[in-house]
Amino acid sequence: MSKHTWFKEFSVPTYEQWREAAEKSLKGASFDAKLLTHSYEGIVRQPIYRYEDVKTLPHLEALPGEAPFHRGNQQPSEHKEHKWQVCQEIIATSAEAFSQAAVDDLARGQTMLHLMVDQATLAGLDPDEALPDTIGHKGISVFCREDIEQAFRGVKLSEVPLYVNTGALGLPILSLILAHVEATGQQAFELRGCIGQDPIAVLLTEGKLACSLQTAYSAMASMTQWAKDHAPALKTILVQSNPYQDGGGNAVTELAFSLATGVDYLQAMLVRGLSIEDITARMQFSYSIGSDVFMEIAKLRAARMLWSNIVTAYGGTTEAQKMTIHARTSAWTKTIYDPYVNMLRSTTEAFSAVIGGADSLHVSTFDEAIRPASEFSRRIARNTQIILQEEAHLAKVIDPAGGSWYVEWLTDALAKKAWELFQQVEAHGGMLSALEAGFPQGLIAQIADQKAASIDTRKKRLVGTNMYPNTAEQPLQAESHPNIHEERAAQARSHRMKQNVSSALNELAKHTNQEFVVHAVKAVLHGATVGDIAKAMRREDSVETIIQPLRIHRASERFEALRIQADAYLKTTGKRPTVFLATMGPVAKHKGRADFAAEFFAVGGFDILRKQAFSTIVEAAEAAVASGAMITVICSDDASYPEQVPPLAHAIKQGVPQMTVLLAGLPEAEQLATYKAAGVDDCIHMRSNCYEMLRELQERIGVSS
């Protein structure tokens, strides 16, 4: 048989024939209920996609490197691998520790240096002006050029692109880096990457800015104009959508609100005299990548497509329509229990980011939710990226998902939903007006509540947390945040006493345009600090910008709180809260429900007493009373329950009146009423709100208050 005649003897089935066969296999169950998937984005996904689903999509024929750029910015004719930058966050307790980690990691596969500075630095405060818990928190403390010099020791910035989130003002951190470049004889023209300012992200997470947004925009314009003239490969405007995912949002909100923020920044820069080409060339977007593999792929593709449309509306050239994307695997999906599962989560999320076309990527370490990364956890996270590049060869193909009917349909469906929400934000008057009205916050809170309800009822499964817990695990030890406030504050005071920067700061106060950057660098070279530059920028600004912040959290926190309460109970009493399983009759009758009950309680940190099956009610009641447990679950089959449950529940209550008696399964209402009259308190079943029941039981037996 020739390969040219393979399968020709088989007819090609129609969709109607396929659906008929599918419905027959469901044996009467609803096709829609069983095979359609409803997402948090309000998108209904079909079990199968065909060419007919995508043939009318206007962007389907576009090649990679062509508008609207959903297939990426690189053209096939460029004949190079589509390698993304390995841009791992490096969080260290000091500039010295950062330098050591940076040099080590750059030698082992990292290609972009991601500097994380602490909250005090981001706020434009020197250590002696900031709250103690903001010094060294989630980044290194830097306030003067010498700190940056130490942090970048051994690193040539002409060879390594940078990624730095500079917070709401940006200029103080940029001026420190530029002063270091000048002092060490390097060239600002060679700087690449992003030293980006994102005041909206600060508003979202903290609820306020220490300055007006107009002051922040003036700083952004100064940085952007300077970069255009002196460091054309450096991006200075950062749009982070990460807070929306970390607050419990979905892909639609991430896209719509990040694009609306990008438009606010565009408008602010245009008003300050920059051109659309100058602005877009210096913009960087950042997205968190969650666990829904195809939705996250579609999200990055839709982001580029929608941004292209927006820039086109502003009259931007084809080149200006390109979007640069940094991605990081989600913080919202990571757990503190069974933390090694986080390696698997990060791998699938990184895969989505790569297939979606991210330009740079951070893969979160498996212990990110627990403590600062160790050398081991940094290496595993970094090597995840390198394996995807070098062993999975994902960099060898541009837009590997392109042409998939499912991915193309999902990209379009997601883009339409995001565009509709984007227009609602514009109807509010832009992103800042929408935030002041509480519109994004309210919508994110609604979606977060929907997700929480799914997690609480275990419709959405978190492996190792609300399902399949590892009850024998030894939790990773959290590391307390080092208290370096007094040491750093003393260093700041000492530095200030040695310097005479008044004349340089006075000169700085005379400038408001891109010359502000030049004079800020001169001031730093004369000893000015982050705090000095920030004060000069805010010298005539006493207006705070205040909104309701997002509630940043992780998906697993509620169930983790149950485990933490149970662990604390163990330390206090010497034993865990305990559940006794009254397994009745042969194994075939009780095993399924006993297994379900054991896991149901294990996710809350309970110990399970599961002895041999009981053949008589008397044996089971005596064992339950003697167990010392305060909760008993009766496990058998529905047919046996009418005979077993009433006398067993009554006998247990007679022996221990305060015992909580539960039934595994969900009987009919009339039958349940009979069981409750005999002493059954409640039922556990597939539709139970697992979190709420465990929380109430912990309170009832004194595990939590």
TrEMBL record:
Record-level GO BP terms: propionate metabolic process, methylmalonyl pathway
One Pfam family per UniProt: MM_CoA_mutase
Q: Keyword annotations for this protein? A: Cobalamin, Cobalt, Isomerase
Extract the SUPFAM superfamilies matched here.
Cobalamin (vitamin B12)-binding domain (SSF52242), Cobalamin (vitamin B12)-dependent enzymes (SSF51703)
Record bears the keyword RNA-binding? no
Q: Does the keyword Isomerase apply?
A: yes
Protein name in UniProt: methylmalonyl-CoA mutase
Q: Which family does it belong to?
A: Belongs to the methylmalonyl-CoA mutase family.
Entry-linked NCBIfam families: acid_CoA_mut_N
What cofactor is this protein dependent on? adenosylcob(III)alamin
PANTHER family the record matches: METHYLMALONYL-COA MUTASE, MITOCHONDRIAL, METHYLMALONYL-COA MUTASE, MITOCHONDRIAL-RELATED
Pinpoint the Methylmalonyl-CoA mutase alpha/beta chain catalytic domain residues. Answer: 39-540
So what EC number does this one have?
A: 5.4.99.2
Q: Which CDD domains match?
A: MM_CoA_mutase_beta
Q: Which GO terms describe its molecular function?
A: cobalamin binding; metal ion binding; methylmalonyl-CoA mutase activity
Q: Name one GO cellular component term.
A: cytoplasm
- Which organism's genome codes for this protein? Brevibacillus antibioticus
